[in-house]
Write a structure and sequence with these properties.
Helix content: over 70%
Structural class: mainly alpha
Number of strands: 5
Shape: globular
Largest sheet: 3 strands, antiparallel
Strand content: under 5%
Strand order of the largest sheet: 4-1-5
Distance between the termini: 12 Å
Number of helices: 20
């Protein structure tokens, strides 16, 4: 990896792309510290600190992770790129049920530009709606400076304009990185936000060790688990089931010679859905706890209902069995309604999203059109059924893997008392996203290097070697 980066910086145009990406990330992080006007920062910090202590701010902590702390500080980029991600997912789902969108997606580059434009409009509308909701929430919680609390309409207007503008700027930054930089811009922005939080979480862990609240052995175990989880994520993200594909014989040279069909493979990824199922499951389970926490401590019914959905709920198997033992029995504290629903939702969204983005019938038809087939299966429906059975089996494996990696921080936090922010270093949604984005970005860099490697040979052959730019991959 480091060798590829070093080679990329040795090529002028690739170095320009990498530096442009870095400057865009610097611009993003600077903008993430520009505060939204008329917000009482002291009251805001006290509010989020109280939520962190009571464990009621799960959904806010989830959003804050994707914004690199911009949400808890309520800066102009507090929404991050989540409205754009949400709009993109909505468009993918709508593409299955709206014929006009299906037709548009098959129009090539022109159709993709139209879909991207509609996605931008949808993301802007979502950002405005969410900004208005955040503005009303801050007014109700008294997080606004005193003189603006008497002018709610002006505050809402200012908040909607500020947060929507920040989200729009981030969409522009992400698209510029995609067009002129390296990798997928939106994914890189999310990964950069999570990495920024990792530095804060690591500093928290070191601080706990220095204060004597946690042992140094615990910190070493966190680092070891992080390394193991990273290796496992790489293996699964890169893993694929290769389905053999045989091409039919064809006549060449005016029918005088018959060329045997070639054998290749159809790669089916183990984790087709990526990190989307974990994001959806976490967001859905965070909503009940956060919404019912707004009812207040005086409403016992609401507080009791929220307790059932809390990640650290006292309604767990450990307490139900009346156990009073430590060591391995503490693992049973993780078995609660939150964890059970989390597992079920993650597996469900793995299969649902895979069904949305991968159509076995369409793949089988495309193979039939190009004269290819799966050995032992007839083209058409029989091939589609076989591919569907394969993708279903490997999707289950990918879903179980996502559940295991995502639950590691919860096990450490609930059963062993590790601060959740520190435990997040060992796995969870954040680490899966960061590793996936790094792998994707490295593939872009290596493809650019490979393309220029071949260009060098072509230039050398055409120009006889004189004056041609040469580059060799070490």
């Amino acid at each position: 990896m480091f060798e590829s980066i070093r080679n990329a910086f040795s090529i002028p145009d690739l170095r320009k792309k990498l530096l442009f990406t870095l400057w865009m990330l610097v611009f993003y992080r600077v903008g993430a510290h520009v505060p939204t006007p008329f917000i009482d920062t002291t009251a805001l910090n006290d509010y989020f600190n109280n939520l962190a202590q009571t464990g009621a701010g799960n959904v806010f902590g989830f959003v804050d992770m994707f914004t690199g702390g911009a949400f808890s500080q309520m800066t102009v980029m507090a929404l991050g790129v989540m409205p754009y991600i949400s709009a993109s997912i909505i468009m993918q789902v709508m593409n299955l049920v709206i014929p006009q969108l299906q037709k548009m997606s098959k129009e090539g580059e022109a159709g993709r530009r139209k879909i991207n434009q509609v996605t931008r409009y949808g993301a802007t509308a979502l950002a405005a709606f969410q900004s208005a909701g955040l503005g009303l929430w801050m007014l109700n919680e008294g997080l606004v400076v005193s003189f603006m609390a008497n002018n709610p309409f002006l505050f809402l207007l200012t908040t909607v304009i500020s947060l929507t503008t920040g989200c729009t700027i981030l969409m522009w930054v992400g698209e510029r990185i995609t067009d002129r930089g390296i990798g997928n811009g939106m994914s890189i922005l999310i990964a950069a936000s999570i990495v920024v939080r990792y530095f804060t979480d690591a500093a928290m862990g070191i601080g706990l060790v220095r204060a004597g609240e946690k042992s140094a052995f615990m910190l070493l175990m966190i680092v070891a688990l992080m390394v193991v989880s990273t290796i496992a994520i790489i293996l699964v993200q890169e893993g694929a089931r290769k389905v053999p594909i045989q091409h039919a014989k064809r006549q060449v040279g005016g029918g005088k010679r018959v060329e045997m069909g070639q054998m290749n493979f159809l790669p089916l990824k183990v984790n087709t859905a990526g990190v989307i199922p974990v994001i959806f499951a976490s967001a859905l389970l965070s909503l009940p706890t956060t919404l019912f926490s707004f009812i207040g401590a005086g409403e016992q019914a609401g507080a009791g209902f929220a307790e059932w959905f809390a990640m650290q709920s006292r309604h767990n198997l450990y307490n139900w069995l009346g156990l009073d033992a430590g060591a391995a029995w503490r693992l049973l504290t993780v078995v609660n309604l939150h964890t059970i629903l989390y597992v079920v939702l993650t597996i469900f969204f793995c299969f649902f999203y895979t069904a949305v983005v991968f159509n076995p019938q369409e793949v089988a038809e495309n193979l039939k059109k190009v004269g290819a087939y799966v050995p032992g299966y007839r083209p058409g429906k029989e091939t589609a059924d076989y591919i569907d059975s394969v993708i279903s089996r490997i999707t289950l494996v990918g879903a179980v893997f996502l559940v295991v990696i995502a639950l590691i921080p919860q096990v450490l936090s609930i059963s062993f008392g590790v601060a959740f922010n520190v435990a997040e270093l060992t796995g969870g949604t954040g680490l899966i996203i960061v590793v996936s984005v790094v792998l994707d970005t490295m593939k872009h860099i290596e493809s650019q290097l490979l393309m220029r490697h071949y260009e060098g040979f072509r230039m050398k052959r055409a120009g006889g070697g004189g004056g041609a730019r040469r580059w060799s991959q070490r």
